[in-house]
Amino acid sequence: MAERTDPSAPQALELADIQGAMLRKRPGPYVGSYLLLRIDTPSDGRRLLAHLLPHVASAARWWDPPGGAWLGVALSHSGLRALGVRQESLDSFPAEFIAGMADRAARLGDTGESSPEHWDAPLGSPDVHLVVAAFAADRAACDSLVETVREALRGLPDVQLLHRLEAAQLPSGRTHLGFVDNIGKPNIEGTGAPRDDRAGAAGPGHYGDPPGAGPAVKAGEFVLGYPDQDGVLATQPLPDALRRNGTYVAFRKLHVRVAEFRRYLKENASSAAEEELLAAKMVGRWRSGAPLVLAPSQDDPVLAADAARNNDFSYREQDPEGRRCPVGSHIRRMNPRDSPGVSVDVLRHCILRRSTTYGPELPEGQLTDDGAARGIVFLFMGTDIRRQFEFVKRQWANDGNFAGLETEQDPLTGNREGARTFTVPLPARARRHQYEQLPRFVVTKGGEYLFLPGIRALHWIAGLDH
Amino acid sequence: MTTHPEKPARPGAIDGRTSEFTLFFKVKPGHGKLLRDIFQQRSFDQLSRQVTEQIGTLHDARWVLFDDDTRLMFATSFDGDWDVYIEEFARRIPQIFDDILIHAEDYPGINAPVIKEYIVAHQVTACSYFRAIPDATVRDLRRARAVYEAYDTLVKAYG
Q1: Domains identified in chain A, total number
Q2: Which domain holds residue A117?
Q3: Residue A359 falls within a domain, yes or no?
Q4: Which of A101, A171, B25, B116 has its CB 3.0 to 4.6 Å from that of B104, i.e. a possible disulfide?
Q5: Beta-carbon separation of B113 and A96 below 8 A
Q6: pTM of the entire structure?
Q7: CB contact under 8 A, B6 and A404
Q8: Confidence band, pLDDT 50/70/90 cuts, at residue A422
Q9: CB neighbours of A447 closer than 8 A, spacing ≥ 6?
Q10: pLDDT in tens, B29-57
Q11: How far is B32 from chain A (nearest CA, A)?
């Protein structure tokens, strides 16, 4: 069930009740730990929540936490059940959240090597009830907060810490594949960022204002309790005390085959410069972050470093055919912006992502795999897992039909069950190059669908009477 | 039981990259003639074509009045996910659908929050569904035709 509201009504977000992990970009450098916990009795689980709550950061008080470290707390459907949330409430969650990410594997393309039977335990099992993210600017502050959590657990025999996953920014500040990350992000109405409701408000050739951010998206796309793009106010999950200021998280641990990626570049290019161009074509940006639409033939580090310009482009105006930034490139798939021919409403399929790297950097220039576990912990957040995360994964990342590319997939993240090609339109009209035999660069090592409640909702869960 | 807009719907049958989607409605008593009039308007065809063009993933669509105009069928073939399709359906076709379904029983109106549930409740999955070229999407077919036409032009000019 849902209610409709006046879409023009201004939105004021209750920032102090929204978990900081949701709306605020984490400053770098960072060090973090993800703790995966199982709750065996509701009373111990609720006591743990009560211990954690003072450390949970809100979107209003951000990056100024006591002790220099903060927590984010999210629950799986089985976790809500383990905490004693009533059946009526459990039943009111969306089907895909109840089923869990492992159950949706075929739909998400998590097949073959990425299928749940190969996932790192305990991910994908019904035992992952609570995921606690501890983040800080340095390892000491992070460890100190994790120790506080461990201390609390000592008095709670019926809560088990199943796994601790360490995440930290790489020395380069980039992803394992060497790219500056997290440049584009949705422009969420009411979050305090500059905004403009009109598409292309900064003028033709710009996509939204701030430039590149696109039109402001209604907060209800990302936080429950506010109207979405259609003016609809979600009325589930029940009750309101649990729903308000919460959102859903798709938590994914993705192993990245760095050596494989480097070898592919080398084998398919005849010079170092060509390798860099191919890498940039796959992503849609140079490793520096400079977008291909604005820097089509060579990297532009000055542009990359300029936050006012490095995202300021429109596909429709500047690159409708993808001769600069291929329509099949990673960033153009994740957010096609105003690309011609995309027939769905892009703003209904926005991704708000937070990603952190794990594992050691593969030494520069090394072309053989060292067997180390390394990759990215990807967090997608939004109020509709199916319409947002699953849609983007299924329609835009793992398929090519939306862009006239048949079954071609995302050159970085595709599972290679479709055509194993990557089509790069060339500057000359009607010419293109097709790279072939793309290997799998990214393997899913696990994931969970989680609910990230508002802070009052966490109190509500912690105080449930039984 | 509670209801939820995101409850998975019965999917249509699938062949290759394409799915079928079939809806059955009961026509309000005495409204059969009004419906026939709508379908006979020239503007109806134009609008349908325009919407098909916009959506870009519809192979075809048909409306059938039957049982002495007391029942109405809508049947279509489309590329991609049912979930996506229904979403676009409810968002993009409001006027056409509203004009027609206003004559169907229990229709809540295209702006009703329960519109998706209403459509889902009237869907029946095909027992059998076959396509001649199951792997060709509308986009693939359009492109193939454009390539053929360009080739033909070339042959005529230089052949």
Answers
A1: 2
A2: 2-195+216-252+448-462
A3: no
A4: B25
A5: no
A6: 0.91
A7: no
A8: very high
A9: A101, A102, A110, A119, A123, A124, A250, A251, A252, A253
A10: 999 999 999 999 998 999 888 888 888 88
A11: 31
Question: Number of residue pairs across A and B with CB atoms under 8 Å?
Answer: 68
Q: Are residues A220 and A281 in the same domain?
A: no
CA distance A424 to chain B (A): 17
- Using CA atoms, how far apart are residues A418 and A109, in angstroms rounded to an integer? 10
Q: B88 near B121, Cβ under 8 Å?
A: no
Chain A from 154 to 173: CB within 8 A of any B CB: none
Domain spanning B14-158: CATH 3.30.70.1090: yes
Neighbours of A421 (CB within 10 A): 19
Q: CB-hemisphere CA count at 13 Å for B149? A: 6
Q: Distance between CA B81 and CA B75 in Å, rounded? A: 16
A278 and A239 share one domain:
no
Which of B2, B56, B87 lies nearest to residue A387, judging by beta carbons?
B87
pLDDT band of A428, cuts 50, 70, 90: confident
Same domain for A262 and A177: no
Nearest chain A CA: its distance from B44 CA (Å): 21
d(C-alpha A123, C-alpha A252), whole Å = 9
Q: Would the CB atoms of A384 and B80 count as touching at under 8 Å?
A: no
Cβ neighbours of residue B155 closer than 8 Å, sequence gap 6 or more: none
DSSP state of A389: I
Amino acid at A214: G
Cβ within 8 Å, pair A1-B114: yes
Rounded distance, CA A397 to CA A385, Å?
Answer: 15
Q: Which of B87, B135, B140, B149 to mutate to test the interface with A (most CBs of A within 10 A)?
A: B87
With CA atoms as reference, report the closest residue to B82 among B115, B57, B62, B63.
Answer: B57
Q: Which of B3, B54, B79 sits opposite A1 (nearest CB)?
A: B3
Residues of chain B contacting residue A386, judged by C-beta atoms under 8 Å apart: 6, 83
Interface pTM, i.e. ipTM: 0.82
> Are residues A231 and A327 both part of a single domain?
no
Rounded Cα distance between A244 and A242, Å, is 6
Q: How many whole angstroms separate alpha carbon B19 and alpha carbon B16? A: 8
Are A222 and A325 contained in the same domain? no
Backbone angles phi, psi at A297, to 5 degrees: -110, -25
Is the previous residue joined to A157 through a cis bond, with omega within 30 degrees of 0? no
